[in-house]
Amino acid sequence: MTDECMLIVFESTHKAIRTERLLLDRIDIDMIPTPREIGASCGLTISFEIADLEAVKGLLSREDKTGIDLYHYNKSSEIKASQRSWED
C-alpha cells in the first residue's frame, strides 16, 4: 500500500471476496488488513491507486454497496482516513 490510496472497507468477508473477484483482473488491487484508523469491519480491505477510482466505481456500479465503504487514505496526513461517497 502506498502512502496515499483509496480503500474499500467491508462489513462481511463474503462481500470482500466477491468484490475482489470483480476487480482482480481489471484493476491493480491489494487485499490488506483494515488500517486501525478505520472503525469496525470484517478486517479485510481492498486498496487501489487514486487514479483508478472512476474505473472501480464503474465496475461496481451495479453492485449493492450496502456494507461497503469507500475511503481516501493518506498515511502521512494528520487525518489518515476520510470516508467518501460512491456517488461523487
| Amino- and carboxy-terminal Cα gap | 23 Å
| Main sheet overview | 5 strands, antiparallel
Helix- and strand-based class? Answer: alpha+beta
The helicity comes to: 10-25%
Q: Give the oligomeric state of the chains in this entry, treating copies of one chain as homo and distinct chains as hetero.
A: single chain
Which word captures the global form? Answer: globular
Order of helices and strands: EHEEHEE
Uncertain stretches of 5 or more adjacent residues: none
Describe the structure.
The chain is of the alpha+beta class. 20% of the residues lie in helices and 32% in strands. The chain has two helices and five strands; from the N terminus they run βαββαββ. It has a five-stranded antiparallel sheet with strand order 2-3-1-4-5, with helices on one face. The longest helix has 11 residues, at 13-23. The model has no long low-confidence stretch (mean pLDDT 92).
Q: SSE layout and pairings?
A:
Elements: E1 4-10, H1 13-23, E2 29-33, E3 44-48, H2 53-59, E4 68-74, E5 81-84
Antiparallel strand pairs: 1-3, 1-4, 2-3, 4-5
Essential attributes:
single chain; 88 residues; five-stranded antiparallel β-sheet; 5 strands; globular
